[in-house]
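Handout, section 4.2: multi-component inputs.
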Amino acid sequence: MQQRFYTITQLTQEFAITTRTLRFYEAQGLLAPQRRGRQRLYSPADRTRLKLILRGKRLGFSLSEISEMIGMYGKAPGEAGQLRLLMEKITARRAELLEKRRDIGLTLKELDEVEAGARARMAEIGGVFEDGAASIVREEEA
Amino acid sequence: MQQRFYTITQLTQEFAITTRTLRFYEAQGLLAPQRRGRQRLYSPADRTRLKLILRGKRLGFSLSEISEMIGMYGKAPGEAGQLRLLMEKITARRAELLEKRRDIGLTLKELDEVEAGARARMAEIGGVFEDGAASIVREEEA
DNA sequence: ACGTCTTTTTACGTTAAAGTCAACAGAGAG
DNA sequence: CTCTCTGTTGACTTTAACGTAAAAAGACGT
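Output:
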């Protein structure tokens, strides 16, 4: 198995972030790349973790929340009390995510309405636009 | 029609925010309650706006993004160029929201996996828990 | 070996979104 | 009228999440 590594700039380019960001995440304990001398070497696993972090950010979670969530992925703890705690956290997170999904649904619906209004207004005043802007192809979902 | 109003503290209690937050939103131009003397009086419309703001926050949007989105809801502009711009913004927002929804789906799936692992681990070590914690009723969706 | 480019470390600066604190105004209860 | 609540304004502070700058150490092509 060939352990391929990524340099810091490769990751910054792939994900459109800065080196400062990556080092900051490391300082926060979210990443822990290997070192060759002083240089950081990011493994595929590190890259995956980074993707999880960025996904969390897109969803509006704070770095500490993200840290907690990623912590769950590690492995189920051996002790019963810890397991129960983990289950509680999962339940809480799930509720939060479902709420966000409802919020998104509402917002999308409202956007549709605004768009319909705009479209009507367009028809009223200007006729049709030259390019396809008036018949946007909707990105497929899920 | 009776115009019922809300005091600032009523809103803070209903939405679990502080007066500071409400005044801050006002300073940012997100709210504009009437005044009776110096006192703020929030109309039902103001309350609705506030709900939109908080929903935006839950989804991780910044206040200026929220401001822009709420601005769309106002009314379609009369000028064609403005209309087109509006449509573009709508399209961009929609894409963003759909991405978030995909992200949520992935995260939920991962949570399910973690939960399954935890459940298995539970069965392994401790048998079943006394209360219903081991058979969580899933919140209904949408 | 040399100059150039990348990377690291350290330190200070910045921005958004409030929190905290102080001083004061108005309104109603006793 | 005085006390107490609620609300207001203004100033200062805080926190998260980076940005920016400076100096030095490696890495790389020729």
